[in-house]
Design a protein that fits this description.
5-stranded parallel beta sheet; 7 strands; two-stranded antiparallel ribbon; single chain; 205 residues; alpha/beta; 7 helices; globular
Length: 205
């Protein structure tokens, strides 16, 4: 968006809040594609219009573009970073890969490690799909092995139309996509992790 649109958005968004806490959730697509200068402008505008408010910034990313420079920026501005990671390499790479069709896993892990080195607050967002739904405990234990304390799990439920495009929520036509997790798989995934957590980690993470 243009600088003018960004300023209008931030000004009006802050003005519309009825709470002292204002949360900006930078999501995508891939939000980091906007570049670090875009977010520096956003922070400057938040300070300009946010007097008297506590501004909180979160960003969701696949981690591929994270560098030391980005981590310094996140740390200085108290960003909470969400890393999209769907489990160990074989599970993560099943649906996630680079635009060249190559593995994205190592780049994501590199980004996660940089966040840890810079003490940036982060969590994991794991999408649960048809391929990884039967590996709940394995995924949970894997995230623990990475030093992750905060995990989010979100079910993938999408519809596709006859022409192969994704259906919008307002579209009447469309069938459940073959990569989606079904309700039984999703329930079992969450129950497996919950009971495992109760037995091993309740009160710890």
């Amino acid at each position: 968006m243009s600088d003018e649109t960004l300023e209008i958005y931030i000004r009006d968004y802050i003005a519309a809040q009825n709470s002292p806490h204002v949360i900006f959730n930078w999501h995508g697509g891939e939000a980091m594609i906007c570049g670090i200068e875009f977010f520096k402008k956003a922070i400057s505008l938040q300070k300009k219009y946010g007097e008297g408010f506590q501004i909180i910034n979160t960003i969701q990313t696949n981690g591929l573009l994270i560098t030391h420079k980005w981590c310094e920026f996140f740390s200085q501005n108290n960003f909470l970073v969400g890393i999209s990671l769907d489990g160990p390499k074989d599970l993560h790479d099943y649906y996630r890969h680079t635009c060249n069709g190559e593995s994205a896993y190592m780049q994501t892990i590199k980004g996660l490690n940089l966040l840890q080195r810079h003490n940036v607050d982060f969590n994991i967002l794991c999408t649960v799909n048809r391929h990884n739904a039967s590996h709940g405990i394995r995924i949970y234990e894997y995230f623990k092995s990475l030093g992750v304390r905060f995990m989010q799990f979100i079910p993938i439920v999408e519809r596709i139309k006859k022409d192969g495009s994704l259906a919008l929520p307002t579209d009447d036509d469309g069938e459940i996509a073959p990569w989606c997790v079904d309700s039984i798989e999703w329930g079992r995934f969450m129950c497996d992790i919950f009971f495992h957590w109760v037995k091993k980690d309740v009160g710890e993470r």
